[in-house]
Write a structure and sequence with these properties.
- This protein is mainly beta.
- About 10% of the residues lie in helices and about 50% in strands.
- The protein has one domain: Roll (Pnp Oxidase, Chain A).
- The longest helix is centred in the middle third of the chain and has 12 residues.
- The mean pLDDT is about 85.
Length: about 140
């Protein structure tokens, strides 16, 4: 994969539950992290006292954080409502020349910030709320 522009990573949400995804914000910085919690099965007879892990077990999760600008009042109101109602929606994270991650996420953090001589910005955090799929580009 060659170098890509950070702005090309897109965040989209299925606002009507019918599989039609819409970009909701102009994110200027974003991070997508995948996690897999391990299950330690080390015991008194573990070889050389090295830790042992149980394969194909544990909890997988993904988190996405971003900062940027809402594209319009409608997307701002939609995201705000999802946060205050603890709504779980299907989201897409489009990674250019790599693929698309899709699945249920919940907004876990929503912050607004700005200065008197600059635009209003927001910080957003999403946590996975179910199985995710990946489709290669």
């Amino acid at each position: 994969m060659t170098a890509q522009r950070g702005k090309d990573l897109l965040l989209k949400v299925d606002t009507n539950g019918l599989g039609s995804f819409t970009s909701v914000a102009g994110l200027r910085a974003r991070t997508l992290a995948f996690n897999a919690r391990t299950i330690d099965i080390t015991h008194a007879e573990s070889t050389g006292e090295w830790r042992e892990l149980l394969g194909s077990a544990g909890v997988k999760s993904a988190s996405l954080s971003g900062t940027g600008l809402f594209k319009d009042e409608v997307s701002d109101a939609t995201i705000r409502a999802y946060f205050f109602d603890s709504t779980i929606r299907h989201w897409q994270i489009v990674i250019p020349d790599f693929g698309t991650v899709e699945g249920a996420f919940q907004i876990t953090s929503l912050e607004y910030a700005g200065t008197h001589d600059d635009e209003l910005r927001f910080d957003l955090a999403l946590e996975s709320a179910g199985a995710l799929t990946f489709t290669g580009a």
